[in-house]
Design goal:
Elements: E1 24-27, E2 30-32, E3 40-43, H1 50-67, E4 71-74, H2 93-107, E5 111-114, H3 121-127, E6 130-133, H4 141-149, E7 153-157, H5 167-175, E8 182-186, E9 189-190, E10 196-197, H6 202-208, E11 213-216, H7 217-220, E12 222-223, E13 231-232, H8 237-247, E14 251-255, H9 273-292
Parallel strand pairs: 3-4, 3-14, 4-5, 5-6, 6-7, 7-8, 8-11, 11-14
Antiparallel strand pairs: 1-2, 9-10, 12-13
Helix pairs in contact: 1-2, 4-5, 8-9
């Protein structure tokens, strides 16, 4: 017993339960927002060629099989917001979607890709299980409505310039268009010039609006601008990811490349497969420990 009459073992501490997000079907057999699960979105930043894309997909499929991961393969057919006109953008929609179909057929993994224009949504939805709205386009009404109309899950990357509470309006555009399968991905905030920080309160704020939240490990490491190629701080992948899961992230997103320094996009922030696997295992162990303490998905607050 402490001098102020408290037991000192924590048993007399009153805690507030954090709100839970709406549970949504993210992809076939995968739900987002359910306590005790941690869906993973992983793959290369951009489709560089068919062979490399299939190589990475097979590595990730084997990883998912080994550890029972609920994994969605991601890759972009076009990176439309590269810093420089000289930077590699991708193989284009037609070729890119053909390669993503090959990935689905070869591995059985569900797939995700970005869409940048309303006209791309229907074609992308014929192949992809999840349509992703890039952060810079997260408030584009026509794009959100077109993505919603496909019936696919819509993953909206939160803009680096938008507060968590304001993302509820972007989510509402999808929901009011007849599609409740929508989530938000947290990827950091602009912090002065050429830097991002992650506000770990974001997960609880979005949960309060009933929105499930994925944490983007890769792009939270970026040091945007400052030259023709965006920089990054790959060394912080592990601490940021663990903090996000402890803060209540419902899933994680990370980019994986067998030779990150040779990648044609996000070379400073993608992880090699072994490091990605070790990180994902640590996140699963963290979540299991939280669940054992009655804390899973409660933003670190005991139930």
């Amino acid at each position: 017993m402490s001098g102020d009459g408290r037991s000192g073992d924590g048993s007399d501490i009153v805690v507030a339960h954090q709100p839970r997000p709406t549970i949504i079907p993210l992809a076939p057999g995968i739900e987002l927002g359910r306590r005790g699960t941690l869906p993973v979105i992983a793959g290369p930043c951009v489709i560089e060629d068919a062979g490399l894309t299939l190589e990475i997909a097979e590595l990730l499929a084997a990883m998912a099989q080994r550890h029972g991961l609920q994994l969605i393969f991601k890759a972009s057919f076009d990176k439309a917001n590269r810093s420089s006109l000289d930077s590699f953008r991708g193989l284009g929609m037609e070729t890119g979607l053909q390669i993503l179909q090959q990935v689905k057929t070869a591995t059985g993994l569900p797939v995700l890709t970005d869409v940048h224009e309303p006209s791309q949504c229907a074609a992308a939805a014929e192949v992809c299980d999840v349509l992703q709205i890039p952060a810079f386009l997260c408030r584009q009404t026509d794009l959100l409505i077109a993505a919603a109309a496909t019936g696919r899950c819509v993953n909206i990357k939160k803009g680096q310039f938008i507060a968590p509470d304001d993302m509820a309006r972007a989510v509402d555009k999808v929901r009011r268009s007849g599609n409740d399968r929508v989530c938000v991905t947290e990827r950091g905030y602009s912090f002065g010039y050429n830097n991002l920080v992650v506000d770990m309160r974001s997960f609880a704020m979005l949960h309060a609006a009933g929105i499930p939240v994925i944490f983007d490990i890769t792009h939270s490491l970026q040091l945007p601008g400052g030259g023709e190629i965006t920089g990054g701080a790959r060394q912080y992948a592990e601490p940021l990811a663990r903090a996000a899961v402890a803060a209540g992230a419902d899933g994680v997103f990370l980019e994986v490349h067998p030779r990150p320094t040779e990648a044609l996009s996000d070379a400073t922030t993608q992880l090699p497969p072994r490091r990605a696997e070790a990180l994902l295992l640590s996140l699963l162990n963290l979540q299991r420990a939280m669940a054992a303490e009655g804390m899973s998905g409660e933003s670190g607050v005991a139930s």
